[in-house]
Each structure stands twice: as C-alpha cells, then as structure tokens.
C-alpha cells in the first residue's frame, strides 16, 4: 500500500486533455491498486483557486472548476501540520545552504518545499513534474518523489 500526494501540475495535466502529459497521468491513475491512497495538499487547493482567479477563457475556468470539484469530492486533502512545519524549517535551510539560493529563488521554492515537507511527514510519495523535487531528494534521503508525466 502506497500513499501518493499529488502536486498541482499533475492535476493540471489530468484536467487538460490537450496536455502532452494527459494520457501518461491518466494511465498512472488507472494503474493504481485498490490499496493505494491518493491525496492532495491543501496548498494544491490554494493553487487551483489561484488558477481559477487568473483564467481568462471560460472553457479553461470550467475545466479547472470541474477538476477541483471532482478531486475535492474524491481525494482526501492533507492539512499543514506542526510536524510538517518543523521538517519545512530544516528542509528550507538545507536547500538554501546546499544550492546557495538567494531570496527570490528561495521564495519561489517555498510552496514546493512545504509540499515536500508534507510528503515526508506523512510518508507519502510526492507525484510531480517539477524538477525542483530531484534537488530536494538529494537533501533529504527519506523524501520519496515520482513523476507520472513522463
């Protein structure tokens, strides 16, 4: 049994039938076993609401809204926790030191670092197409990450 924490970009590929990654992601969802658990972070909901707010095309808005509603009904949403916060503090410090990240780059990575911390705290496999997670994997051996887009 595996718990998968799905990142926002994977949700976007699933919602967009025209995405070059749509079929790969869809196939991976269908290949899950009954024992596997799939969840999303509360931050994914935040990011989906931001996508709704900035979308201009009505068909894009409808696709995002439909996907958000389906996911909210089907997938548990992991909250932010104190244990995740402790992990985040250590992980962000390691990231800054190891990659000599300056403030703008560090700020851009913050949400991804929080999501990675959530995955570590819940012993979940993070599913994302964000290359930043390969860097995080080098910093934290217990961090599990996979990419269903490729």
Write a structural description.
It is built from seven helices and five strands. The protein is an alpha/beta fold and 150 residues long. The chain folds into two domains: 3-78, Rossmann fold; 82-123 and 130-144, no CATH class. Strands 3-2-1-4-5 form a five-stranded parallel β-sheet. Helix 1 crosses helix 2, helix 1 crosses helix 4 and helix 5 (82-99) packs across helix 6. The longest helix has 19 residues, at 103-121. The protein is globular. The chain starts with a strand and ends with a strand. The mean pLDDT is 91.
Please outline what is shown here.
With 150 residues, this protein is α/β, with parallel strands linked by helices. The chain has two domains: 3-78, 5'-nuclease (Rossmann fold); 82-123 and 130-144, no CATH class.
Rounded mean pLDDT is 91
**Cα separation of the termini:** 22 Å
User: How is the biggest beta sheet arranged?
Assistant: 5 strands, parallel
Helix/strand structural class: alpha/beta
Strand content: 5-15%
List keywords for this structure.
Rossmann fold; single chain; alpha/beta; 7 helices
């Amino acid at each position: 049994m595996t718990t998968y924490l799905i990142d926002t970009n994977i949700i976007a590929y699933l919602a967009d039938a025209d995405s070059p990654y749509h079929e790969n992601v869809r196939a991976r969802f269908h290949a899950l076993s009954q024992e596997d658990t799939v969840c999303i972070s509360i931050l994914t909901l935040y990011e989906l609401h931001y996508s709704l707010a900035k979308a201009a095309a009505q068909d894009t808005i409808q696709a995002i809204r439909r996907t958000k509603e389906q996911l909210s009904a089907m997938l548990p949403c992991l909250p932010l926790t104190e244990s995740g916060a402790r992990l985040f503090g250590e992980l962000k410090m390691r990231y800054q030191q190891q990659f000599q990240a300056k403030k703008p780059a560090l700020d851009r990575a913050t949400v991804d670092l929080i999501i990675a911390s959530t995955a570590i705290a819940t012993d979940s496999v993070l599913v994302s197409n964000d290359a930043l997670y390969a860097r995080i994997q080098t910093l934290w051996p217990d961090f599990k990450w996979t990419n269903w887009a490729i």
